[in-house]
Amino acid sequence: MKNNTKTIYTFIIVAFLLFENSAFATTINVCPSCEITSIKEAVLIAKKGDTILVKKGIFKETQINITKAVHIIGENMPILDGENKTESIFAVSTDNFTISGFKFINVGLSYTKEIAGVFISKSTYFKVTDNVFENVFYAFILQRTKYGLIKHNQIKGSAKSEVTSGNGIHLWKCSHMRIEQNTISGMRDGIYFEFVSNSHISNNRSMDNVRYGLHFMFSNHNEYHHNEFKNNGAGVAVMFSKFIKMHHNTFHFNWGTASYGLLLKEIYDAEINDNIFEQNTIGINIDGCNRINYKNNHFIRNGWALKFTGGCYANVFEFNNFMHNAFDLSYNSRLNDNKFEANYWSEYTGYDIDKNGIGDVPFRPVKLFSYIVNKTPEALVLLRSLFVDIINFSEKVSPVFTPDNLKDNKPLMKPVNPVVSSE
Q1: How far is CA 245 from CA 43, 162, 171, 275, 412, in A?
Q2: Would the pTM count as exceeding 0.85?
Q3: Tens-place pLDDT, residues 356-411
Q4: How far apart are alpha carbons 70 and 258 in whole angstroms?
Q5: What is the pLDDT of residues 284-315, one digit of tens each?
Q6: What does the alpha-carbon distance between residue 163 and residue 159 come to, in Å, rounded to a whole number?
Q7: Which of 88, 89, 179, 416 could pair with 119 in a Cys bridge, judged by C-beta atoms 3.0 to 4.6 Å apart?
Q8: Phi, psi (deg, nearest 5) at residue 17
Q9: Cβ pair 273, 297 in contact under 8 A
Q10: Cα(32)–Cα(81) distance, rounded to whole angstroms?
């Protein structure tokens, strides 16, 4: 009986602690004609768990320090004007907060201070959603945060060069983050990760950025899916990371002498599946990457579908479509430890006598001309000439410059059907 009574008392105390904040939470209204006319003032008087409801209007405030768990909600998209000062608009260092429904404009530029529309440090369990950012140096800077959600924000910059521009969503040393349904354009890098782990990046659109649509380094155990990266200066760069998953993404229209659909630099133990690489200078540039599975990807009308540089070993390519690329594969070594099997190649001219859907003769995807172009880029003017057809045929018959075992022994006669997303 005593144990039961003790259990009941414990339950009551826990329930009281859980609901204490919500039971006594209040809503503070902020507007030009309200009793409280500034967000800073509202934050000062707010208590843990309170909601600050900001009505429509223009609020010229910066360095709004959030040090308590409050929910700051904009009604009818109030405007927060940073007046190009060298201060962040929101500077947050607390847990369990919400910022939603604002338009951020005129966040200042600084080369010595980290300035953003929303600057978050050492926070957990928070949400920043449904905001608009225009004319900002950085929209978001997050440092040492965990279990946060950045969702459904629109970020539009006017960056002209890498030196004078910042990133849309910038994370450093964070974990268990969710970056979802954001639209980012006109920044230096759309999304930037450094030392970020166990996070999900999904359903974002990153386009027309000066450098990378997505750029991450030293970031392990992350998943990137259902994102679109379009027309970015240098495409997408993934560097010095391991145990990543990239699937159902679209990389297209990333053109330029130093532009890629996807640049992989020293990536290990990854899964890259069900992606579309269309009309990029290079679909995937692979540099020093090992033990990566590439499956059900679609390489369509790229300059190079795949370009290998550096030592790459134990990678597997299967059930991919290579369709109408200028070069399906560029390879810079005489040794090959990578497996190509059961892919569709639009340039395959073999036959299938037994009608099992698999070509009866292997396909060699590396052309001698791609080897020549690697050594002498000016030779590209000869593309599609009769001379090029002759030297490619001779290399296919008797390989000299390319690895003899670099071939697809089971080339598919028909394209692999695109995988329909479940989302």
Answers
A1: 40, 28, 18, 11, 25
A2: yes
A3: 999 999 998 887 766 666 666 666 666 666 656 666 666 666 666 667 788 999 99
A4: 45
A5: 999 999 999 999 999 999 999 999 988 899 99
A6: 9
A7: 88
A8: -65, -35
A9: yes
A10: 15
Distances (CA, A) of 296 to 92, 272, 275, 343: 42, 9, 7, 9
The one-letter amino acid code at 130 reads: D
Q: Which residue has the tokens 């200066």?
A: 233
- CA dist 240 and 247 (Å) reads 19
Inter-residue contact 320 to 296 (CB < 8 Å): yes
Single-letter residue type at 326: A
Burial 230-245 (b: 16+ CB within 10 A, else e): bbbbbbbbbbebbbbe
Tokens of 105: 């404009």
Each residue of 27-62: b (16+ CB within 10 Å) or e? ebebbeeeebebbeebbeebeebbbbbbeebebebb
How many CA atoms does the CB half-sphere of 351 hold within 13 Å? 2
Q: Other C-beta atoms within 10 Å of 108: how many? A: 17
- Domain residue limits, the chain: 250-366+402-423
